[in-house]
Specification:
CATH class of the largest domain: Alpha Beta
Strand content: 15-25%
Shape: elongated
Strand order of the largest sheet: 3-2-1-4-5-6-7-8-9
Radius of gyration: 25 Å
Number of strands: 20
CATH superfamily of the largest domain: Ribokinase
Structural class: alpha/beta
Number of helices: 14
Length: 430
C-alpha cells in the first residue's frame, strides 16, 4: 500500500510530513510525500514558514503520480492560495480517499495558513475531503461560527459539509474532567465518539490522528471503524509521548505489532476471572514480526502477566526479546505454520482441554516424560516439545499442551495469527 502525505516539513519531527512518515511506517505501508512548505520550529518555539515554489510543488506531484499507485492521500499544511489551487487542479479528479487536516496554527504557536487563503481553502480544498478533521479552533475559523452548544456544533459541521466535505469530524468538540468527545457528521448520521481524557500537552497528535484515518480508509474500513481505529492509535501515541527536546513532549508512535499486542493484553487482563487461568510460572503473551529468525523478532512482556488476589496485572513492558519460553514455542510453530505469529501460555486445567475439544479447535500434545536427557541438559524442552507435537500434524494446532514432569508445571499454549485471534480463542475455552 502507498499513502501520500501532502503538507509542511517540521524539522523537530513532531508533526507534519515527518510525523506522517513515522505513522505510515508503523503500519508497514510505504509513505510518499509532497512538501508544500518548510518551517523552522522545535518543541519550544515556532520560527518562520516558507512555502515552496509553484514549479517544485507541481514537479513533486507529477513525479509521484507518474510512478506510484496511490491508495490514499492526507492533506495538511497548504499555506497560501497558490498552493491550494494547484492541489485542487491535480487532485479533484482522483477517486481515492482523501483526509484533510486543516492545519491553521502550530502547537508551538505559528500560523500555517495565510488569512487571505482561508476562503480559497474553503472553496478548493474542503471539497476534496472524504473526511475533514478540524479541531474546535479550526472549525470556528472555517465556519466563522463559535461553538457554544450542541446545536451550534451541529450547525458548524453542516456548514463545513455544505462546502463539499463528505464527512466532518470536529475533534475535541466536547470535554469534561474524564472524557473528551469528537463530533462526527456523516452523510446521514451524526454522533459523538468519546475517549478517556489524557491531561498532557503534546506535539503531533492531530497529525497522528489524520494519518491513521487515511490508512484505515485505504484498508476499506467504514467511516466509524476508521475513526475508532485512529482514535485508539492517537491515544496510544499521546500516552507514549516523550520529552525529547527542551519544550513540549512529542507523541511517540509504536509499530503496529506493539499496538496490536498492547491492546490485546489490555483486553485479556480485563476478562472476568482470568486470574484463575494464570499458572505458577505466570503468563507471557507474544506477537512476532513477519518471518521471525530469533526470539529478538518476537515482542513480549519483559516481566509477566501475574496474579494479584483476584486480578491479572501486567508486570513489565513490551520489548522485542521480552519472552524466552513462549517466544521459543512461537518460533518453532511459525517455521511449520508461517501464519502463526502470536501465542500465550495458560494454566493447565482438564476442563480447559475439554472445552478446546468441544469447540472443535485443533489441539495437540507432547509428553515431557519422554524428553531425551540431552534435551533436558541443554534446556531446550520447549523447542523439543513443540516440534514433537506438530511433527505429524496435518492441521494447524490452535493449542498445544503437556501434563508436566517431575518438578515441571503442566501447561497449555494457545497459538493464532494475531493477538486478537488469541483472545477470540481464549473466550471460547475458559
Amino acid at each position: 500500500m502507498n499513502l501520500l502525505s501532502i503538507g509542511g516539513s517540521d524539522p523537530s519531527s513532531g508533526a507534519g510530513i515527518q510525523s506522517d512518515i513515522k505513522t505510515f511506517s508503523s503500519f508497514n505501508v510505504h509513505g510518499l510525500t509532497v512538501i508544500t512548505a518548510i518551517t523552522s520550529q522545535n518543541t519550544s518555539n515556532f520560527g518562520i514558514v516558507e512555502p515552496v515554489s509553484q514549479k517544485i510543488l507541481e514537479d513533486q506531484i507529477e513525479s509521484i503520480m507518474s510512478d506510484f499507485k496511490i491508495d490514499g492521500i492526507k492533506i495538511g499544511v497548504v499555506y497560501n492560495s497558490q498552493i491550494i489551487k494547484i492541489l485542487n487542479s491535480k487532485l479533484r479528479k482522483i477517486k481515492i480517499p482523501i483526509v484533510v487536516d486543516p492545519v491553521i496554527k502550530s502547537t508551538t504557536g505559528g500560523m500555517l495558513i495565510e488569512k487571505s487563503a482561508i476562503s480559497d481553502f474553503q472553496k478548493y480544498i474542503i471539497p476534496l475531503a472524504t473526511i475533514i478533521t478540524p479541531n474546535r479552533f479550526e472549525s470556528r475559523i472555517l465556519s466563522n461560527t463559535k461553538i457554544s452548544s450542541k446545536k451550534s456544533l451541529q450547525s458548524i459541521a453542516r456548514k463545513i459539509q455544505k462546502m463539499g466535505a463528505k464527512n466532518v469530524v470536529i475533534t475535541g468538540a466536547k470535554t469534561n474532567d474524564k472524557k473528551i468527545s469528537d463530533f462526527v457528521l456523516e452523510k446521514n448520521e451524526e454522533y459523538f465518539m468519546p475517549v478517556n481524557k489524557i491531561n498532557r500537552i503534546n506535539h503531533g497528535s492531530g497529525c497522528n490522528y489524520s494519518a491513521a484515518i487515511i490508512f484505515a480508509l485505504a484498508k476499506n474500513m467504514t467511516i466509524k471503524d476508521s475513526l475508532r481505529f485512529a482514535q485508539q492509535f492517537t491515544q496510544n501515541s499521546i500516552k507514549n509521548a516523550k520529552k525529547t527536546g527542551k519544550g513540549i513532549a512529542i507523541t511517540e508512535i509504536r509499530d503496529a505489532i506493539n499496538q496490536d499486542l498492547e491492546e490485546a493484553i489490555n483486553k485479556f487482563v480485563q476478562i472476568e476471572n482470568i486470574y484463575k487461568n494464570i499458572p505458577e510460572c505466570q503468563i507471557n503473551f507474544v506477537y512476532s514480526k513477519q518471518k521471525p529468525k530469533s526470539i529478538m523478532d518476537i515482542l513480549g512482556i519483559s516481566g509477566r502477566i501475574v496474579k494479584s488476589e483476584k486480578e491479572a496485572i501486567v508486570a513489565g513492558r513490551l520489548i522485542y526479546g521480552g519472552s524466552k519460553h513462549v517466544a521459543t514455542a512461537l518460533l518453532v510453530m511459525n517455521k511449520k505454520y508461517p501464519k502463526i505469529r502470536s501465542a500465550i501460555n495458560l494454566k493447565y486445567q482438564s476442563d480447559t482441554i475439554s472445552k478446546i475439544k468441544k469447540t472443535k479447535l485443533e489441539v495437540a500434545k507432547y509428553d515431557r516424560n519422554k524428553e531425551p536427557k540431552n534435551v533436558k541438559n541443554k534446556g531446550s524442552t520447549i523447542e523439543w516439545g513443540i516440534k514433537k507435537a506438530v511433527k505429524n500434524s496435518t492441521k494447524m494446532p490452535d493449542a498445544i499442551y503437556h501434563t508436566g514432569d517431575f518438578g515441571k508445571e503442566p501447561m497449555i499454549m494457545v497459538f493464532a495469527e494475531t493477538p486478537n485471534d488469541i483472545l477470540k480463542k481464549i473466550l471460547k475455552i475458559i
